[in-house]
Amino acid sequence: MEITEADERHIPAIQQIYAYHVLHGTATFETEPPGEAEMAARLKKVHAAGLPWLVAVDGGIVRGYCYLSLYRERCAYRFTLEDSVYVDATYQGRGIGKMLLSRAVGWAEARGFRQLVAVVGNSENTASLALHRAAGFSITGTLRSVGFKHGRWLDTVILQRTLGHGDATLPESTE
């Protein structure tokens, strides 16, 4: 399994993986799968922010992806990122999410970010919760019944992981 930076050629596979989760799962609260053009725009936005969008490629086929985005747009949040991880439904449970998230955490720590947040769709999403806990995240809260999808109310679970020195020291640059 190779972990590499995503580019335009990966968009069709990324779109298909995400579309499956939109249509059949509760990890995302989107209800209509975005097309390839929208996924390409999202990739471009992540890259324009100087952040990574990683893909796990096995035998030339994308089996999963992970990207980091700004937790919030306001300046005070500039040391905090949010992760998103999606794995091909037929390849779940093989450690792909763990490899992707580990690489993303390392990337963020190497660049001086201090906190990483995960917003997990649905409190019953045990695979994502276990993935994040194994990567050092702790649950910081649950927003009850904030989403409605597939005919039922869904929670959002917020997890957080300290990166590097966290809040124990000031960042090198506060500007």
From TrEMBL:
GO terms for molecular function: acyltransferase activity, transferring groups other than amino-acyl groups. Signal peptide: none annotated. Keywords: Transferase. InterPro entries: Acyl_CoA_acyltransferase (IPR016181), GNAT_dom (IPR000182). Gene3D superfamilies: 3.40.630.30. The keyword Membrane does not apply. Residues 1-164 form the N-acetyltransferase domain. This is Putative acetyltransferase. It comes from Kluyvera georgiana ATCC 51603.
